[in-house]
Amino acid sequence: MRRRQASQDARRAREFETFVAGAAGRLLHAATLLTAEARDDNPRARALLTASLAHTYATWDRLRGEDPYDRARQQLAIRYARGAWHRYRGHSGLLERLAPQERLILVLRMYEGVAEEQTAALLGLPVERVRAICARAISLLLHPPRGPAPKATGPDPAAQRGPAAQPRTGPEAGADAGAAMNGGSTRTEAAPS
Hints:
about 60% helix; Sigma-70, region 4; RNA_pol_sigma70_r4; WH-like_DNA-bd_sf; DNA-binding transcription factor activity; RNA_pol_sigma_r3/r4-like
C-alpha cells in the first residue's frame, strides 16, 4: 500500500512539473498584468502565481479530466480578486490606470481569451456588467484621460479682495486688457504723422 501511494505521488509530481514547465510562463505573464508590475520586477505576481499553483497541485488528483490550466487560471483570478494583491499602489505597468476589477476582466477576456459567460460566472457578475467593464477598460487604454487640472493652493484671491477686484466686463475690460499689454498705461499715444 505504501509503495503504491509513493508511486502515485511520484506520478502526480511528474505530471505537475510537466504542466508547470509548459504553463508557468503564460500564467506568470497574466499575474504580472493583473498586478501591473514591471516584467523584470514582479514579486507580487510571483507570489500570486505560487499560491494559485500550490492550490492547483493540492487538487491535482481531483481534476478528473478538467484542464489544469483552466483551474490554475481560475485560482489566479480568484486569489487576485479576493486578496490584497491589488492594494499596492507602486505600479509601473501599462495597466496601472485601470481599477483592479477592470484589470482582472481585461486580462481574462483579452489576454487569456476567456468567454464573457465564463468570466461572469467566475466573478459572480452579470454578463452585461462584464461586457461594460471590459469596454470601459479598453477605452481607458486606447484613450487615456488627460492629466488632472492644476489644484488651487489656497482660496481664490479674487474672492478675497472683494467686488472691486472682480473682473470687469464691457468697455472697462478692454481698457484693462490694453493696459496690461502696454505695461500698465491705459492711455494710447497718438501715432506720429
